[in-house]
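Structure (tokenized):
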């Protein structure tokens, strides 16, 4: 500062009149001193107010920079959320954010107001799963206010659940137009004050105070120690609407007390010394004050230059637009390069000429709300068209530069190029669709379940509908749906396998039956794997293959094998009978023939011829029975038709009427007239006649024969039972030979051992079965199982 030099005192009337001059000088000095004291008071007060303003502006700049940086952090966290509302790479991105911003205590993603993602987790465990809308009224009001403002809002200072005091900044996130939740940061109060430069220990005369109106009590709360009344001091305030905060800066010195002039007597005696001292002090203080002002101006200029540099060189497009005309007022280099226009070209263009035609309507709708002060900011993903006609995808944020209640003037637009991100997301969607198509083309049900969530289904391919008839939604509708659909005969076996074998090895293959939606039973071969390892099992992934046809083929093959095996047994038995019986008859005929040729008398010859005739008759009976057996075995296309069982039972009883009367037997027929069985007519007559005649033939000599015939349903078929109270059969001794050829057990003269063999072969030729229960001396029951 340049100081004008003093002019020498000229000799004049005042010098020639010392008393008067002294009096006048005294009066003048008193007046000058009074004037100087008053002026000094005003200057000091003004300078202190300027110092307070400069310090508050510095705090404001630093705090605004901190808040903007915090907003960028929450935007970065929000970008980790895909269109399905699921965060990706949250841990990695959050770690980088915390590393780059040490003043942060934690970063969070809060879907639907519940804190589900927080980093770092250590030290912040108490905050996990906290529901902002339920924990307390203050949290709910702060969260709701952020939603209403549709921009970042800071709650606090509050007592954090993880300990200490801090502020929580929350940015509401929308997917489409639907509220998803919040992207949030947590800053310790000490770190916030430190980052803003609010430090009462570094200033002797100036003290800060930090306050906020409690939304519940509507009372102003102060968060720093010290004076909370400012009426006796010089002070200024700054308000930050992002958190509804108010910062006070107070000069704790009392101006009047520091600059009292003292008594008039002392001041008069020490006038020269005091005036010189005051002048020197005044000039010195003014120099200091103006030096401080120059330094602050230099700092402000440097800050302005710094922010100008950041604006021009920011790695994101920034532009200022006339809100009335829509023309660009200025744009940074990144935005110019992105759009393809120079700065001069861009300042003559309207912003709507750069927006893709399909996005103009939504942009105009949001901007009208901004002009009407319905919202204070909006952001959207939109397309821009550059100078070459290429489409650029961008995330645009529009904020007004006028205060609420003021007429719209201009606004700022921040454009972030996300073209590569959109292309990448489209590639991911296409890849996911391709993978899904591949999975659904597999001839099996691809599935996944979570071990940690009690085997809850997390994925099932659409083949579940083709194979089992259930939709994907039905399959995943309830916990344990899969186990409920396992065939009841297999459920215990499958459960035991899962309990005992699941976590023993990584790869499994198991077969069981499942009941399809239409009620059919499907055989499944389930091949599945424990992921990612047996040491850390989290999921099960597998594929269920329909092997019903294979199982049916195996069953058919098994039945064929059993049939061939049985046929072989019959063939061996048949060959034995043929070789034994026919050889016996041939030997008898040969021997009798020899006797006839050697007979000496006609009487002997006639006797031999009579004996030969009996042997021939027996041979004929044997050949007849063997022919019946051969007919049964060679009748491939035997006709089966529905037959009324009661009718054929009555016919068989009538045929045996003579035997029944002869033995005074009682026949109890309980077969109803509505029973029809699929059988061959001739075979059914033969089977019933044979079984009823055997019941009469082998009746007990000491009691009246009683034959009971009953029929009961069995699934889709019937069980016919023919019971008697006859002599019975020792099944332990003769059970295996009961249905064999040429087997007799009671020594009856008319027994040939062919009846039960033929009966069994006739029944089995129809695909049915015969069973027997018998107790020697008590009676016998034959059961025919019609399928």
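Design, position by position:
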């Amino acid at each position: 500062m340049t100081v004008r030099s003093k002019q020498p005192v000229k000799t004049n009337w005042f010098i020639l009149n010392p008393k008067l001059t002294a009096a006048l000088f005294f009066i003048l000095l008193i007046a000058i001193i009074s004037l100087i004291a008053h002026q000094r008071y005003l200057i000091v007060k003004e300078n202190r107010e300027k110092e307070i303003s400069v310090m508050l502006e510095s705090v404001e700049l630093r705090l605004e920079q901190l808040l903007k940086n915090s907003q960028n952090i929450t935007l970065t966290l929000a970008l980790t959320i895909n269109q399905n509302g699921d965060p990706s790479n949250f841990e990695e991105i959050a770690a980088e954010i915390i590393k780059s911003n040490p003043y942060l205590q934690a970063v969070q993603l809060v879907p639907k107001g519940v804190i589900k993602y927080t980093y770092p987790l250590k030290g912040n465990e108490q905050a996990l799963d906290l529901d902002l809308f339920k924990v307390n009224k203050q949290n709910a009001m702060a969260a709701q206010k952020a939603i209403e403002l549709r921009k970042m809002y800071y709650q606090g200072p509050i007592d954090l659940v993880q300990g200490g005091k801090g502020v929580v900044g929350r940015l509401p996130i929308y997917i489409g137009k639907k509220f998803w939740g919040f992207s949030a940061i947590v800053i310790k109060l000490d770190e916030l004050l430190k980052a803003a430069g609010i430090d009462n220990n570094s200033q002797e005369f100036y003290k800060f105070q930090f306050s906020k109106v409690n939304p519940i009590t509507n009372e102003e709360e102060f968060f720093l120690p010290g004076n909370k009344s400012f009426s006796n001091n010089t002070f200024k305030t700054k308000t930050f609407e992002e958190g509804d905060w108010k910062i006070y800066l107070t000069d704790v010195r009392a101006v009047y007390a520091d600059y009292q002039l003292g008594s008039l007597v002392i001041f008069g005696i020490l006038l020269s010394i005091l005036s010189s001292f005051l002048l020197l002090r005044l000039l010195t203080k003014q120099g200091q004050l103006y030096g401080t002002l120059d330094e602050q101006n230099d700092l402000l200029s440097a800050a302005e230059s710094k922010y100008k540099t950041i604006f021009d060189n920011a790695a994101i497009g920034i532009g200022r637009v006339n809100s009335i005309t829509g023309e660009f007022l200025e744009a940074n280099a990144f935005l110019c390069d992105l759009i393809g226009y120079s700065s001069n070209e861009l300042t003559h263009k309207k912003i709507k000429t750069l927006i893709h035609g399909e996005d103009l309507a939504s942009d105009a709708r949001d901007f009208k709300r901004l002009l009407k002060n319905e919202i204070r900011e909006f952001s959207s993903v939109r397309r821009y068209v550059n100078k070459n006609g290429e489409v650029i995808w961008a995330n645009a944020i529009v904020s007004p530069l006028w205060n609420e209640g003021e007429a719209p003037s201009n606004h700022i637009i921040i454009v972030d190029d996300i073209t590569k991100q959109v292309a990448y997301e489209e590639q991911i969607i296409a890849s996911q669709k391709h993978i899904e198509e591949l999975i659904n083309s597999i001839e099996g049900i691809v599935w996944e379940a979570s071990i940690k969530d009690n085997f809850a289904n997390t994925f099932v391919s659409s083949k579940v509908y083709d194979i089992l008839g259930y939709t994907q939604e039905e399959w995943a509708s309830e916990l344990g749906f899969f186990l409920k659909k396992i065939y009841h005969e297999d459920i215990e076996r499958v459960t035991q396998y899962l309990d005992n074998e699941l976590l023993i090895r990584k790869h499994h293959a198991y077969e069981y039956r499942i009941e399809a939606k239409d009620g059919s039973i499907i055989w499944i071969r389930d091949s599945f794997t424990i992921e990612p390892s047996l040491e850390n099992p989290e999921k099960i992934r597998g594929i269920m293959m329909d092997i019903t046809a294979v199982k049916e083929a195996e069953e058919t093959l098994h039945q064929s094998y059993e049939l061939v095996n049985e046929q072989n047994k019959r063939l061996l038995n048949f060959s034995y009978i043929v070789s034994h019986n026919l050889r016996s008859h041939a030997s008898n005929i040969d021997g009798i023939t020899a006797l006839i040729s050697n007979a000496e008398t006609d009487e002997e010859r006639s006797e031999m011829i009579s004996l030969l005739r009996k042997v021939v008759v027996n041979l004929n009976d044997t050949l007849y029975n063997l022919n019946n057996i051969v007919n049964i075995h060679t009748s491939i296309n035997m006709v089966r038709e529905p037959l009324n069982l009661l009718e054929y039972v009555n016919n068989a009883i009538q045929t045996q009427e003579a035997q029944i009367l002869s033995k005074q037997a009682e026949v109890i027929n309980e077969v109803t007239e509505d029973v029809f069985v699929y059988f061959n007519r001739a075979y059914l007559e033969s089977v019933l006649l044979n079984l009823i005649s055997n019941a009469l033939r082998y009746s007990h000599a000491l009691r009246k024969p009683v034959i009971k015939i009953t029929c009961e349903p069995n699934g889709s078929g019937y069980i016919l039972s023919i019971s008697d109270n006859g002599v019975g059969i020792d099944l332990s001794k003769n059970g295996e030979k009961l249905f064999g050829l040429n087997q007799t057990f009671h020594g009856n003269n008319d027994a040939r051992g062919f009846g039960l063999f033929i009966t069994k072969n006739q029944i089995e030729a129809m695909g049915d079965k015969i069973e027997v229960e018998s107790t020697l001396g008590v009676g016998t029951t034959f059961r025919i199982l019609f399928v």
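Reviewer-requested clarification: The domain at 314-423 is CATH 3.30.450.20 (Beta-Lactamase). The chain is about 45% helix and 25% strand.
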